[in-house]
Amino acid sequence: MEIKEACLSYSIVSLVYQITIITIMYLCNISPISSKSITTFLMVFIPLSMIGCYVLIKLLHSKVSSIKKRKDSFSEVMLLVFTLASFLAGSVLFHVVSILLGAPLIENVEETFSLSMLCSALTVVPLFITHDGRWDDFLSYLPETTYVQDSLSDCIKMVSAFTVIGAWAGAFPIPLDWDRDWQTWPITCCIGALSGQIVGLCFSILSCAGIIPSSPPNWKNKIT
């Protein structure tokens, strides 16, 4: 399997997997747009998303011929431990950023941290796993140029960017004086993150299929 095929497979499987989880939970009256069930939704969706992500990325790594396992790679147990550590670290980071961007400091702490865990599960975890748990590779890679078809890491980073933007954009309807249940914090941000993830995966699919450019013209030259 080549890199392009791996990126396409990751995007399609992730898209179908996440939509399936959301649909099943919705049919079970665990809706992400209800203040009564948003916490339950996140507590179920987040671990399922992380498990699916871990299995899928490890499977793709074993199938892609150009990805060679490093001699100093962690064992599967250690990788799981460090993945959980990265998830918690990412959750704390997103929580701090959420507060800096206007989330309640003292009130709704549980809700804010739930949103932070969702963002961490959808962004930090897949990026960390695809780098085999190497903190140095993971952190040094983040500011580099993104080109969807270059590597699985680039594909995941692009999807993660859409997720973060979606979560940020989701905050805009909250202050509107509509008095709707779905405006309760942090429902719209969670929906924004999930929507951003889906849009990012669709973008990746279309890019890998050659329907749209995998990056803006002269992206690399402009950034580097």
Structural overview:
This protein has helices spanning 3-27, 38-63, 76-100, 109-122, 124-130, 135-141, 152-169, 187-208, 219-223. The chain is an all-alpha fold and 224 residues long. Helix 7 runs antiparallel to helix 8 (187-208). The longest helix is centred in the N-terminal third of the chain and has 26 residues, at 38-63. Residues 216-224 have low confidence and may be disordered. It is a multi-pass membrane protein. Keywords: Endoplasmic reticulum, GPI-anchor biosynthesis, Membrane, Transmembrane, Transmembrane helix. InterPro entries: GPI_biosynthesis_protein_Pig-F.
Mean pLDDT: 84
Instruction: Specify the helix fraction band.
Output: 55-70%
Per DSSP E runs of 2 or more residues, the count of β-strands stands at 0
Choose one word for the global shape.
globular
**SS-based structural class?**
mainly alpha
Number of domains: 1
* Poorly predicted tracts of residues: 216-224
List keywords for this structure.
single chain; 224 residues; mainly alpha; 9 helices; 67% helix; globular; disordered C terminus; endoplasmic reticulum; Phosphatidylinositol-glycan biosynthesis class F protein; transmembrane helix; GPI-anchor biosynthesis
